[in-house]
Design brief:
The structure holds 2 protein chains of 2 kinds. The longest helix of chain A is centred in the middle third of the chain and has 33 residues. Chain A is built from 8 helices and no strands. The N and C termini of chain A lie far apart (about 55 Å). By secondary structure, chain A is mainly alpha-helical. Chain A has 2 domains: about 110 residues, RNA polymerase sigma factor, region 2, helix turn helix motif (Rna Polymerase Sigma Factor, Chain: A), CATH 1.10.1740.10; about 80 residues, Orthogonal Bundle (Arc Repressor Mutant, subunit A). By secondary structure, chain B is mostly helical. Chain B is elongated. The chains are: A mainly alpha, B mainly alpha. Chains A and B meet through helix 2, helix 3, helix 5 and helix 8 of A and helix 1 and helix 2 of B.
C-alpha cells in the first residue's frame, strides 16, 4: 500500500488501512515517544493517542509534508504535553504533601533504562537520559529525534517546522547543556 | 582530564543504541481502546425518560394543589368586601355627610 492509498483508506475509515498504518509506524512512534517521556507505560499510552489522533484528524492532513513527518510532529507534541502534565502534578503533589497525611504518591520517576542501550553502557546512558530530561523542550526534541530516531537534520527540521541551521544550533546547545549537567552530576 | 573522559563516555552512551520496539499486541490494545471510546456512554440517571416523567408529574401535582387551595379561599371569604370598605370609612369618618368646608363654616 503506497502513502496515497493509505491516506485514502484512512479517510474512508478502512480498518485494513489503519492496521497497516499502525504496524508500519508503531515502532518509530514508540521509540520517539519513549525517548522523551522515559517511561514504558506512558510511552505506550502516548503512542496509542498518536494513532487515535491520526485516525480522527486524517481529513485535516493536507499532504504538504510526508505522513511520517506529520506523525512524528504529533508524537513529539503529545510527549511534551505529558511531560508538562507530570510537572504540574508534581507541583500540586508538593502542596498535597504539605497538607496531607504523607500517603500521596510521589511523581518522581526512577532512572530510565532505554531497552536498546548496550549492557555495558546502561549506567552512563541512565545518567545521560536524566540530563536529557532537564533540557529545554526544543533541544530535547531535536536531540531525541536525531540521536535516538536517527533522523537527519533535514528530517528533524521538517518535523519541527524549522530550518536546518536552527536544528544545528539546537543540537550544539543541547550538547553544551548536557555536558554542563553531567559535570554537575559527577561533582 | 579523567572527568572529561567520563563525561565523553556518558555523552556517547547512546551510540549504537538500537531502537525500542512497540510492546506485543500493541494494535490489539489500541483497537480495544478505540472501541471503548466509541461505545455510547451510559446515561446519567437524571437523563432517563422515567425521571423526566416523574418530574413533570410532580410539578403538575404541585400546581394543581396550589390552584385548588386558591379556589377554596376565593369561594369562602372570611371577610366580605363591603365590610372592609365600611371599616375603613368609619376609621376616617367618611360615613358623615358633613364636608370639610361645612366643618370650617360652622367654626
Amino acid at each position: 500500500m503506497n502513502e496515497f492509498e493509505l491516506i485514502e483508506g484512512l479517510k474512508n475509515g478502512d480498518e485494513t488501512a489503519f492496521r497497516y498504518l499502525v504496524t508500519t509506524y508503531q515502532d518509530r512512534i514508540y521509540n520517539t515517544v519513549i525517548g522523551i517521556v522515559q517511561n514504558a507505560e506512558d510511552a505506550e499510552d502516548v503512542a496509542q493517542e498518536v494513532f487515535i489522533q491520526v485516525f480522527r484528524s486524517i481529513h485535516s492532513f493536507k499532504g504538504e509534508s510526508k505522513l511520517s513527518t506529520w506523525m512524528y510532529r504529533i508524537a513529539t507534541t503529545r510527549s511534551l504535553d505529558l511531560l508538562r502534565s507530570r510537572k504540574s502534578k508534581k507541583r500540586f503533589g508538593f502542596i498535597q504533601r504539605l497538607f496531607g497525611d504523607g500517603t500521596e504518591p510521589l511523581y518522581e520517576l526512577p532512572d530510565f533504562n532505554h531497552p536498546g542501550v548496550e549492557l555495558d553502557k546502561k549506567e552512563n546512558a541512565a545518567k545521560l537520559f536524566k540530563a536529557i530530561s532537564q533540557l529545554p523542550e526544543n533541544q530535547k526534541i531535536a536531540f531525541t529525534l536525531h540521536k535516538l530516531e536517527d533522523l537527519s537534520y533535514q528530517e528533524v527540521s521538517e518535523v519541527m517546522n524549522t530550518t536546518v541551521a536552527a536544528v544545528e544550533s539546537l543540537m550544539h546547545r543541547a550538547r553544551l547543556n548536557l555536558r554542563k549537567l553531567l559535570e554537575k552530576e559527577s561533582g | 582530564m579523567k572527568q572529561n573522559n567520563k563525561i565523553e563516555e556518558m555523552l556517547s552512551s547512546l551510540d549504537g543504541c538500537s531502537k525500542a520496539t512497540a510492546p506485543d499486541f500493541f494494535y490489539t490494545r489500541l483497537k480495544a481502546r478505540m472501541d471503548k471510546q466509541s461505545a455510547p456512554a451510559p446515561q446519567s440517571w437524571v437523563m432517563r425518560p422515567a425521571f423526566a416523567i416523574v418530574a413533570i408529574v410532580a410539578v403538575l401535582l404541585i400546581n394543581a394543589i396550589v390552584l385548588l387551595r386558591q379556589t377554596k379561599t376565593t369561594d369562602n371569604p372570611v371577610v366580605s368586601d363591603t365590610d372592609t370598605y365600611q371599616s375603613v370609612a368609619m376609621e376616617y369618618s367618611l360615613n358623615d355627610n358633613t364636608t370639610p368646608y361645612e366643618l370650617i363654616a360652622d367654626k
